[in-house]
């Protein structure tokens, strides 16, 4: 096992038509992290795009699956096996309906809460104890279906703070790598 290597996976759907969707918050955060490392995403045989570099002083592989959200597990398992990363060093960055827009929450393990990307990963890695950085997108208005809501772009009002919120989530990933879960939670669960 590569005990000193981190695997950070951002969830989203591939292609330009999904780029601004709430469901692609994970991809947005990974793009920010890649820019911080100075790396560019390249195709990997695991059906993902990857950047290898240093994150918060540690070796890391940043990855965005090239599959649709509900099939994210295959690429994550492929990357975990290829790079020999232990599950406790796998971080998944994803959108979360049950957190207010802009809030960032970190945790280890838990259920999938109806999130098809998490469900696919949990099934593929045969465990749910991976680390999660949850990007709050809030609940849909009125009776709007949750699936339809996450497949819509962020609203004009949300977009005003989107870059700042994406940067904050990227900071949370770096804090998790550098300082561990408890310290990162104490820092980012204050708002």
Quick synopsis:
The protein is an alpha/beta fold. 37% of the residues lie in helices and 23% in strands. It has one domain: Peptidyl-tRNA hydrolase (Rossmann fold, 3-Layer(aba) Sandwich).
Tally of individual domains? 1
Helix percent reads 25-40%
Structural class: alpha/beta
Strand-and-helix sequence, N→C?
Answer: EHEEEHEEHEHHH
| Radius of gyration of CA atoms, rounded to a whole number | 15 Å
User: Which CATH architecture is right?
Assistant: 3-Layer(aba) Sandwich
Average pLDDT taken over every residue: 95
Largest sheet: number of strands, sense, barrel closure: 7 strands, mixed
The termini sit apart by 36 Å
**SS summary, helix count:** 6
Strand order of the largest sheet: 2-3-4-1-5-7-6
Strand content: 15-25%
Named CATH topology: Rossmann fold
CATH C-level label: Alpha Beta
Keywords: Cytoplasm, Hydrolase, RNA-binding, tRNA-binding
Function: Catalyzes the release of premature peptidyl moieties from peptidyl-tRNA molecules trapped in stalled 50S ribosomal subunits, and thus maintains levels of free tRNAs and 50S ribosomes.
Active site: 23
Site (Discriminates between blocked and unblocked aminoacyl-tRNA): 13
């Amino acid at each position: 096992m590569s005990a000193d290597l981190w695997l950070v996976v951002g969830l989203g759907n591939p292609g330009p038509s999904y780029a601004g969707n709430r469901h692609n918050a994970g991809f947005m955060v990974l793009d920010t992290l890649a820019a911080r490392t100075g790396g560019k995403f390249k195709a990997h045989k695991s059906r993902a795009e990857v950047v290898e570099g240093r994150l918060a002083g540690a070796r890391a592989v940043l990855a965005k699956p090239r599959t649709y959200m509900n099939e994210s597990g295959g690429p994550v398992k492929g990357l975990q096996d290829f790079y020999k990363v232990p599950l406790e060093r796998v971080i998944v960055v994803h959108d979360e309906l049950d957190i207010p827009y802009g809030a960032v929450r970190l945790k280890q393990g838990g259920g999938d809460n109806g999130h098809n990307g998490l469900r696919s990963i949990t099934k593929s890695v045969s465990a749910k104890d991976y680390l999660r950085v949850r990007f709050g997108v809030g609940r849909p208005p009125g009776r709007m279906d949750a699936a339809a809501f996450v497949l819509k772009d962020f609203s004009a009002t949300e977009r005003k703070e989107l870059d700042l919120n994406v940067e904050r989530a990227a900071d949370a990933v770096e804090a998790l790598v550098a300082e561990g879960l408890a310290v990162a939670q104490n820092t980012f669960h204050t708002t």
